[in-house]
């Protein structure tokens, strides 16, 4: 299993619109995530910053399922107007984050 985290920045005043669009996420988008093995997906917000986290059985397989997929392409087009481009890349593509610490609560002495 792989754990993935990403970050994006919302354009000023777009928080409620972002929430509205995700409250009405397309069924075909949810189905694509399920078929790709994505689970435990959550998105958090603070000000204009978004932080997303999900778990996936096989990151490469999930990536291939999404690559060139018309549902993903349509969703990205639908969402791109509410994101602020990153200064270093000029894009609104999510920035992946590196896992720095993990505690799963399991006692390894058992």
Structure notes:
The chain has 110 residues and is of the alpha+beta class. The protein has one domain (2-88): Alpha-Beta Plaits. The protein has four helices and four strands; from the N terminus they run E-H-H-E-E-H-H-E. Strand 2 (38-46) and strand 3 form a beta hairpin.
Strands, helices and their partners?
Blueprint: E1 2-9, H1 15-23, H2 27-35, E2 38-46, E3 49-56, H3 59-66, H4 70-79, E4 95-96
Antiparallel strand pairs: 1-3, 1-4, 2-3
> How many extended strands?
4
The CA-CA distance between the termini, in Å, is 22 Å
Number of helices: 4
According to CATH, the fold-level topology is Alpha-Beta Plaits
Radius of gyration (CA) equals 15 Å
Helix content: 25-40%
User: What's the architecture, going by CATH?
Assistant: 2-Layer Sandwich
Give the class from helix and strand content and strand pairing. Answer: alpha+beta
What would CATH call the class?
Answer: Alpha Beta
Low-confidence stretches: none
Strand order of the largest sheet: 2-3-1-4
So what's the overall shape? globular
* Helix and strand sequence: EHHEEHHE
Strand content: 15-25%
Largest sheet: 4 strands, antiparallel
Tally of separate domains: 1
Mean pLDDT: 89
Task: Name some characteristics of this structure.
4-stranded antiparallel sheet; Alpha-Beta Plaits; alpha+beta; 110 residues
Summarize the structure.
With 110 residues, the chain is of the alpha+beta class.
């Amino acid at each position: 299993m792989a754990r993935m985290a990403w970050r994006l920045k919302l354009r000023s005043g777009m928080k409620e619109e972002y929430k509205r669009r995700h409250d009405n996420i397309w069924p075909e988008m949810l189905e694509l995530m399920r078929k790709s093995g994505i689970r435990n997906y959550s998105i958090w917000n603070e000000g204009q910053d978004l932080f997303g986290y999900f778990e996936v059985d096989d990151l490469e397989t999930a990536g291939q399922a999404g690559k060139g997929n018309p549902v993903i392409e349509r969703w990205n087009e639908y969402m791109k107007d509410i994101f602020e481009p990153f200064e270093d890349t000029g894009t609104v593509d999510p920035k992946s984050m590196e896992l720095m610490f993990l505690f799963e609560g399991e006692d390894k002495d058992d």
